[in-house]
Amino acid sequence: MSVLAAERIKITSTKSPWWCTVAIVVLGLGLGAIVGITSKIGLNSYNDQLAQGKTPDYDPYLPSVYDAVGSGVGGFGVMVLMILAALTVTSEYRFGVIRTTFQAIPNRSAVLVAKAAIIGVFGLVLSFVLGLGAFYLAKTFAGGDAGKLLSFDVDGTWRVIYGTAILAFLQVVIAVGVGALLRQSAGAIALLLLWPLVIESLFGLFGSFGRAVQPFLPFANASHFLGSDGGIDFHWGPIGSLIYFIVFTAIVFGAALLVVNRRDA
Questions:
Q1: Shortest CA distance to 71 belongs to which of 40, 38, 97, 46?
Q2: How far apart are CA 189 and CA 180, in angstroms?
Q3: Residue 234 DSSP one-character state
Q4: Terminal CA-to-CA distance of the chain, rounded, Å?
């Protein structure tokens, strides 16, 4: 408990976590509202063309809960959360504070676990609340017609909302692990951003080899758990993808614990 208290004080006594939290709230709720507004505008335009006797050359955009929650909260919001989690480790290495931390708390594993636990639980609760908020904002702005897929009667809606919170916790643990492994802020942030956004998408360019590898990519499995398969032929269902991502998280964090305990601070 003393380790948790010490890490909580370090995290809450600086401004960056608060600014990151503001950014997560703005991105999560803002993009949810934008999804609702754009879908309503698109549907109104579609109906206007039909009323004028024209044949629209597109289908109206009806957003799903994955669009409303996954784009803001589960996408950009969780990425900011991962950056915050990585910085809690790399900043201590940058300024040499980590030596004092390890002198006060010789159990280095406890330090990393405390960092991951505090930010992870915070991220889980925040993501769940913002997920609900983004869902209702999108549904409100979209209206009854454009937002007819934004309903808890639609299969998978709850899984996207609570799943986003679960994945937020796991991705924070990954970010703390990556920060401990690399020790350098720029490198850790670059890897955490490029990995899900660029590196995994590149496998689609490698033909049959890329298609064979795609079902085993961690962040692709995270998206599959939320209901977006990205055109990938997975060998298991959504729950299997969650288990796969949990195992991947444990491997990354376990490697971080091993390395931190073996090398000098």
A1: 38
A2: 12
A3: -
A4: 23
Distance CA 54, CA 7 (A): 62
Domain boundaries along the sequence of the chain: 2-262
Q: Record the pTM.
A: 0.91
Q: How confident is the model at residue 95 (pLDDT cuts 50, 70, 90)?
A: confident
> Rounded CA gap, 29 and 141, in Å?
12
- 52: which 2 tokens? 């004028």
Model confidence over 21-77: pLDDT tens digits? 999 999 999 999 999 999 999 888 888 888 888 877 778 878 888 888 988 898 889
E strands, 69-157, in order? none
CA–CA distance, 181 with 159 (Å, rounded to integer)? 32
Q: Rounded to an integer, what distance in angstroms lies between the CA atom of residue 93 and that of residue 149? A: 47
